[in-house]
TrEMBL record:
Entry's Gene Ontology molecular function annotations: D-tyrosyl-tRNA(Tyr) deacylase activity; Gly-tRNA(Ala) deacylase activity; Ser(Gly)-tRNA(Ala) hydrolase activity; tRNA binding
Localization, UniProt: Cytoplasm
A GO-annotated cellular component: cytoplasm
Domain observations: A Gly-cisPro motif from one monomer fits into the active site of the other monomer to allow specific chiral rejection of L-amino acids.
Pfam family, one: Tyr_Deacylase
Keyword tRNA-binding set for record: yes
UniProt-listed InterPro entries: Daa-tRNA_deacyls_DTD, DTD-like_sf
UniProt-listed PANTHER family: D-AMINOACYL-TRNA DEACYLASE 1, D-TYROSYL-TRNA TYR DEACYLASE
Chain positions of motif Gly-cisPro motif, important for rejection of L-amino acids: 138-139
Protein name (record): D-aminoacyl-tRNA deacylase
Segments traversing the membrane: none
SUPFAM superfamilies for the chain: DTD-like
NCBIfam families xref list: D-aminoacyl-tRNA deacylase
Naturally occurring in which organism (per UniProt): Leeuwenhoekiella palythoae
Length: 150
């Protein structure tokens, strides 16, 4: 699994001209899933996301987590995080998990992240054409891959 975490002051996702979800201070998390991913990847990544100390403390240093800030999360499925551009100019998405495998893992990710965040994670819609709007605060953008734990 691979995530791109963006610290935001606000964000929303719109599907077919209707705002599906909206958050204030927190994270937009783009999630890519491969056929090799397991529940162990979910456990590790959700813990890592909730523990990231990228919010300012009283001195303005990045020392506080999303839990410390009582922040929100907008989670968006993003199979393109596993695009391969090794050959030619048209990306290949062969490493991305197919929907029958990815959807159950995506739903477990939502549940586990909501549990650790102690509030419901907001989402897009798996497989939909989404318009994601955000104000990246910092900017702070961090990429994490569960296969690169060391």
């Amino acid at each position: 699994m691979r995530v791109v975490v963006q610290r935001v002051s606000e964000a929303s996702v719109t599907i077919e001209n209707v705002i599906k979800s909206k958050i204030g201070i927190g994270f937009v998390v783009l999630l890519g899933i491969t056929s090799e991913d397991t529940e162990e990847d979910i456990e590790w990544l959700t813990s890592k996301i909730c523990g990231l100390r990228v919010f300012g403390d009283a001195e303005g240093l990045m020392n506080e987590s999303i839990l410390d800030k009582n922040g929100e999360i907008l989670l968006i499925s993003q199979f393109t995080l596993f695009a391969s551009t090794r050959k030619g100019n048209r990306p290949s998405f062969i490493k991305a998990a197919k929907p029958d495998q990815a959807i159950p893992l995506y739903e477990k990710f939502i549940g586990e992240l909501s549990k650790k965040l102690q509030r419901q994670v907001q989402t897009g819609e798996f497989g939909a054409d989404m318009k994601v709007a955000l104000v990246n605060d910092g900017p702070v953008t961090i990429s994490i891959d569960s296969k690169n734990k060391e």
